[in-house]
Amino acid sequence: MEFAGRAQAARDRVPRIDPYGFERPEDFDYAAYEEFFSTYLAILTRRAIKWSRLLKGGGGVQKSMTLKRYIRKGIPLEHRARVWMGVSGAQAQMDQNPGYYRHLLQGERDDSLEEAIRTDMNRTFPDNVRFRKGSDPCLQRTLYNVLLAYGHHNRGVGYCQGMNFIAGYLILVTRSEEESFWLLDALVGRILPDYYSPSMLGLKTDQEVLGELVRTKLPAVAALMDSHGLLWTLVVSRWFICLFVDVLPVETVLRIWDCLFNEGSKIIFRVALTLIKQHQALILEAASIPDICEKFKEITRGNFVTECHTFMRKIFSEPGSLSRASIARLRERCRARLLAQG
Q: Is the predicted pLDDT of residue 3 greater than 60, yes or no?
């Protein structure tokens, strides 16, 4: 009874809708979240003071080891858009192309592109009150514009499922159509090349790279996958395509993206390896393909991923060394193998 009372009291105190507009799920652990957030709030307050000092003066964001260290410890929401724009190169692109975003929206119509985007509008964050048709303002139109402009900008990609979730998060953080467009361009065009192209070769390659990293660092898990002939794409494709959106809690995803914009795609491998290593014993209990798939869903839930500050510290310690050179060599080998397979 005492536990039930504490849980109900926490439910009464913690808002049902989070700061980003998402409704908390029915099975949300309000008591555990309240306990975590009471500590995390103090961390956020300390970080906000340090960030305000670092960014004092309103100039451009310059990459440095100090900035990298600060980013790994988390960017306060009020500074997140500015820092993402600076470290990703999106701000430079926007400054060099004034009026380009509006020009894209006024360009020649592409019925197939528009229909593909429109089809996904109601499927994008049905649990977010800001994306519902009845909300005022409704972010569906903003999302549509960003995706349409990007489809006109990068005709080789157009629109690919998964981009709606990424653009949606960008809009929630920046509250700006144009900034969201340029950040989407940084992700799709530079940070994650060929993830969303028709062949998705970059995406397939990086899933193969993860498999190779698991084979080296967590051989028992690799052996389990091999014994069932299970391809990595079956269990981690959503992690890569949606960059953990709708997979991990929103604040954890944004902390991951802080580092992704600054350090590049190797952050995805660090997150994936940490999730697998932390839950290796649970995964190894699986005795069938459906069982393995269910375990991989389970490892993205619970306190370990909710406590984002501790989780982010783990991703930079648990997987060990992941150098750019070693990742580049693995990518080259995996890409060659995929191309040979046709």
A: no
